[in-house]
Specification:
Blueprint: H1 11-20, E1 35-37, E2 47-51, H2 54-68, H3 79-102
Antiparallel strand pairs: 1-2
Length: 105
């Protein structure tokens, strides 16, 4: 990941915010990454200490697509297809970086 000039789209800033809003008890390497959301308005942290449920995690991509106005009827978007696309893009970007690094001298 790399920083972005738009703070709303910066993945590093988003992760840092996510890390700050976790309870201290859930900041250990053994803690689950996906945590339940604390819907209490007066809560000190955004997340609970409970891990997010399997069904909620499985519906995240579908919910994000709906909120973003992406119609996925033509292409069935799943968590697996998003992960596969991400791996392909990272592999391609990494190979381009390696090629440019090799021929830099």
């Amino acid at each position: 990941m790399w920083p972005c000039s738009d703070p709303k789209r910066d993945p590093i800033l988003a992760y840092k915010t996510f890390a700050v809003e976790r309870t201290p008890k859930t900041c250990t390497p053994e803690s689950p990454f996906y945590l339940g959301i604390d819907h209490n308005i007066n809560a000190k942290y955004w997340f609970t200490t409970q891990p997010m449920g399997k069904n909620t995690i499985n519906s995240l991509l579908k919910t994000m697509c709906q909120n973003a106005g992406i119609d996925d009827e033509e292409h069935r978007l799943t968590n697996h297809s998003a992960r596969k696309t991400m791996v392909k893009k990272l592999k391609k970007a990494t190979s381009l970086i390696l090629i440019s690094y090799r021929y830099r001298f």
